[in-house]
Design brief:
Strand order of the largest sheet: 1-3-6-4-5-2
Strand content: 5-15%
Shape: elongated
Number of strands: 6
Oligomer: single chain
Distance between the termini: 28 Å
Number of helices: 7
Number of domains: 2
Largest sheet: 6 strands, mixed
Radius of gyration: 32 Å
Order of helices and strands: EHHHHHEEHEHEE
Amino acid sequence: MESKTIRPIVFGAALLLSGCSFATESLWPSLTGEDPVGSEQSEQQAPAPQQAQAAPPPPPMQPAQPAPQVQVQQPPQLGTTNFQTPGVTSGRESGTFVGKKVVELRNELRRLQGNVSRNNTDLQQIRARTVQDSQRYHGAVAAINARLQVGTTPGNPILVEQYNQAVSDLDKIGADISRMNDITNSVTSDATLAAFLAENTRAAFRISGAIDEDHQQLAILQDEVDRTVVLVDRLLKELSEDIQRQTNYVATERSNLNTLSESIKSGEILGASLTNRALGAAGSPNARSALSPSRSLAGRRPLVVIRFDRQNVAYEQALYSAVSRALERRPNATFELVAVSPATGDNARRALDANQARRNAEAVLRTLQSMGLPAQRVNISAQTSAQAQNNEVHLYLN
């Protein structure tokens, strides 16, 4: 499939782009007041679209639209507990059957506490390494966003190198999570051994033939086993919480990196991934894999109209802003992407225009996906319009 290479044009205060314009919804104020392709009455009442001129002067008293502010998610706090074992009290073997059982249980407890100590050491090392990896990752992302915030060239190789470093650091955090999972498997086995020891220690009190010294040692041993059981349970719980938080964090940051990659390509800052705004929304319909005839759009105004009236239309920033605002108000929103082609010319001309409009719509869909919008949130359709002078792509809020 043919795809257009999108090169960015820095957006001015009033988004002076003839190729891309906002239209209003009831959810937020109008940005242009321009009607999309629709009824003839709307066309007559709407002002003529402003064409991009060389160095146009900004409208007087028009407040500049600020660049999007990127809220970088901070890594979740890791657990801080240092799991120190209570130790095992030595005792004299009494020579009874119960006394021998106490010695056996004591050795098992030492083995269990040795496992806990090793797992705790590994966990503390992984935590320290994760903190370092997170600091490097956020340093690389912050440097990229700072450069994008003031504007830069499309595909800046310095930003590409920093982006690759950020990806590498995030992969290291993912590897740290895998190591935490390995520790969790080991601690789960320790929890089974701890439960076995606790049960056998209690059962030893019911064995006949014990002397008072045996029960005294059993009481000390039971206390140490119970404290070790609590320690293992806390270790397992804290590990599970760390893994869950870090897993969610890495998944979110991978989505943000996809959007950041799109920003580097265009040389303009976009913001956090649209996935973050859509999390938790339910009931989204499945996306259509092919274009289909559009349902009636009469009376509806699109969020964005992208007019492909020239090469390399820079529409990314306007598209991101519109979808981001929609998801802020309606996190479960779905969208319809409509490929609009002119209804003029002979059959061959109309077929060529319709095919090109379809390709344009597919390119816009890929851009939305790279910004983090799930594919199942977007339906694609096509239509012709007698008012359209060039191929267009309209984005509607369902």
